[in-house]
Amino acid sequence: MNRKQQLLKRHRRNKRVALLIGLLVLLVAGVLVAWWLPLILAVLLWVVHEAWFADHLFYSPKDDYRYNFAPGTQRAGLHLAAGRLVPDAPLSLAGDETLIVEVQLKSRWLGRFLDPAVELSGDRQAFERGVAGKRYLNLTGSAQALAAGELGLRGRYCRIVGRPVLWVFPHPDYARQRLMVIAPHADDAELAAFGLYAQADESWIVTLTAGEIEAEHYQQMGLAQADAAQLKGRLRAWDSIAVPRWAGVPEAQCVQLGYFCLQLPAMRAAPDQPQASREADLDDTRLFRQFNAFTLPGDVDGSPTWRNLIADLRAVLLKARPEVIVLPTPVLDPHPDHICAHDALIEALQGLEWQPTTLLGYANHLHDNDRWPMGDAGAGVALPPQFEADEVVEPYCRVVSLSHQRDKAMALGMMHDLQPRAPFKRRVRRLLQQLLAGRAPSPYGENEFFRKAVRRHELLWVLKQD
Asked: Residue 291's domain spans which residues?
């Protein structure tokens, strides 16, 4: 059981205990006051829960985020003066650096009911309700205003305590190098790095699985489970080839490997043992590879094995020869297919005659906070929750222009998996949070990823750099 599963199990146990206590309170109220009182209280308690306590937040908002940046990283002191963030000493910035500001935040009383945020000039980065600890703002793209002491900064439903510290991370322009994005499922590349791969001189998109399971939406059309899963897999395989064309990536540079969703861990555990689809009644990957522009080693037998996956990746790597590879990072992303996608890429590179100069990691899911990035669509992306500073990390951030944000939203809208309506209960919860907790819906779409992924920043992590 991974860490997120353990946290979710504890969260559900605590909710069951809270529910039991609530039922006892309602029972006592019905006996001592009036029979109708528990009905009214039950509705009110449910509304309160959905509006303010339904987030999957598996840590205390009073916990400090902990990051271990490399010892030689440039840092500078800052202070607040008349609502502006001012450097203690003159800053020399090129303008394209990743800029992270370490701050101490303290929630005001309204910040326990409305999302506290730090408002910057033209940006707002939100944090946990009741926040009281160390957090990391993302100022990438604001170098000129920061160096001139003209960057406005103020707390919204929170205040900034003490003196902020600036961390500066210079990077080359990775978009000028040959780029490959490793996506465990169709839409992972777009969620994590559409802005980067859309602006790159040459991009390749390699998707590992068809993402065929959980096809209830297609079963509602009258299809049996296996038929629905096959249809969903074929659609997502098409998405993985077709949607990157929206960003100018040639069809011949989009590859779908067709392995089966959530079966990568089993494949890794027994590298020579085929792992059939959980729901599609398939043990042959070739149905989902039909849109590829060239053949791969796994096309010989279509067997869903780890050996074939590694061989396929090696063949694509040698064909594309990427200088920069973007892939999930298991340090932050707990999804089992994402962890295995990282491990498969690392294994495929071992002993290969071509080696990339840079590996960039991404996290489309988190252990601790299902809402991150917090705040509204279009806002900046602060650093995510991190409480174990064992590993040295280096953030790399790109600014995504408004036009590219809109293109990214349209790319996500083309993804079939993000099109079905949310369950009724989730829609009611979001309406209550909009009315009572001040949370704005995304203008681009109903799926939560339209809010989380269509942002001013794309945040990646440097895993390797030669």
From this structure: 174-465
